[in-house]
């Protein structure tokens, strides 16, 4: 079963392939009830407003609109200073992915999905077949940890984005935006900062949490699951929460703005 697949009725949890151990015909691993399950309607209910009237149509709002079926809107690549030269949709096929990467005529190729370690995730195998140099092979962040950056023999870049929408947005902002800035000879985007009491840290990974910022304080806006864009659509930034202890009331966290090209949010 691959990420995004429909689950059998009464499923209580999913054990990821990378967390499982197979010995003979015995499969073992630790699962937590509700883990890695996305339930229908968990992000919003029918008829519920998801973005307030008059809100700026930023990239996350465009992505949310697409997730809700309004998918004829432009957005994220242009906001980052790039130009989309075409979109190719592929089945879960290593051969098709290899061919698409080999024939792509672009300085940067974005691959959404196929970046993790499941049976239908062919990106790394395809890059290996093409003789690409894997520069970034996963990042210790949540969401967005399966992201990848590779350099093809001809010099073109391949950026692997996770398939889940919020994870893909995080990977785009943290990997694709700096890469595009570098290609244009521009400096790395600067981060702002704010105090962030109450944000929960992950024990091992950096968390990127959609927040609103008021009077120098970052507040989580909710709806921050890796498959959700509702939180990002109404947020000002992602708070970058280091692993370990939660930020205290006086500790600042870095802020990654969601409005590309905007000035960093000050403390």
From TrEMBL:
| Family that this chain belongs to | Belongs to the MoeA family.
Q: Which Pfam families does this entry report, sorted A to Z? A: MoCF_biosynth, MoeA_C, MoeA_N
| Single GO term (MF) | metal ion binding
Task: Name the enzyme group at the top EC level.
Answer: transferase
**Function in brief:** Catalyzes the insertion of molybdate into adenylated molybdopterin with the concomitant release of AMP.
The protein's annotated catalytic reaction(s) are: adenylyl-molybdopterin + molybdate = Mo-molybdopterin + AMP + H(+)
Give the E.C. number(s).
2.10.1.1
**What is one GO cellular-component annotation here?**
cytosol
All copies of domain MoaB/Mog, residue ranges: 29-182
Tell me the GO BP annotations in alphabetical order.
Mo-molybdopterin cofactor biosynthetic process
Q: What keywords were assigned to this record?
A: Magnesium, Metal-binding, Molybdenum, Molybdenum cofactor biosynthesis, Transferase
**Name the record gives this protein:** Molybdopterin molybdenumtransferase
Q: Which pathway, per its entry?
A: Cofactor biosynthesis; molybdopterin biosynthesis
Instruction: Please report the organism this UniProt entry assigns to the protein.
Output: Pseudonocardia asaccharolytica DSM 44247 = NBRC 16224
């Amino acid at each position: 079963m691959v990420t995004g697949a429909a689950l059998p009725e009464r499923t209580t949890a999913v054990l990821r392939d990378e967390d499982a151990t197979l010995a003979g015909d015995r499969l073992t691993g630790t699962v937590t009830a509700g883990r890695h399950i996305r339930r229908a309607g968990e992000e919003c209910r029918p008829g519920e407003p998801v973005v307030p009237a008059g809100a700026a149509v930023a990239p996350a709002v465009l992505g949310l609109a697409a997730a809700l079926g309004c998918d004829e809107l432009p957005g994220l690549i242009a906001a980052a200073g790039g130009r989309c030269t075409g979109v190719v949709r592929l089945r879960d096929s290593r051969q098709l992915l290899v061919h698409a990467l080999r024939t792509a005529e672009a300085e940067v190729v974005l691959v959404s999905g196929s970046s993790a370690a499941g049976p239908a995730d062919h990106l790394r195998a395809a890059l290996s077949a093409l003789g690409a140099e894997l520069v970034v092979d996963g990042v210790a962040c949540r969401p967005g940890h399966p992201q990848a950056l590779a350099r093809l023999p001809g010099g073109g870049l391949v950026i692997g984005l996770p398939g889940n929408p919020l994870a893909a947005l995080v990977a785009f902002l943290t990997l694709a935006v700096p890469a595009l800035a570098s290609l244009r000879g521009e400096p790395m985007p600067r981060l702002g900062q704010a105090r962030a009491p109450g944000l929960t840290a992950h024990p091992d990974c950096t968390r990127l949490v959609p927040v609103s910022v008021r009077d120098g304080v970052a507040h989580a806006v909710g709806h921050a699951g890796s498959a959700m864009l509702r939180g990002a659509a109404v947020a000002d930034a992602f708070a970058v929460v280091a692993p370990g202890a939660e930020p205290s009331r006086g500790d600042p966290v870095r802020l990654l703005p969601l409005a590309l090209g905007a000035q960093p949010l000050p403390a």
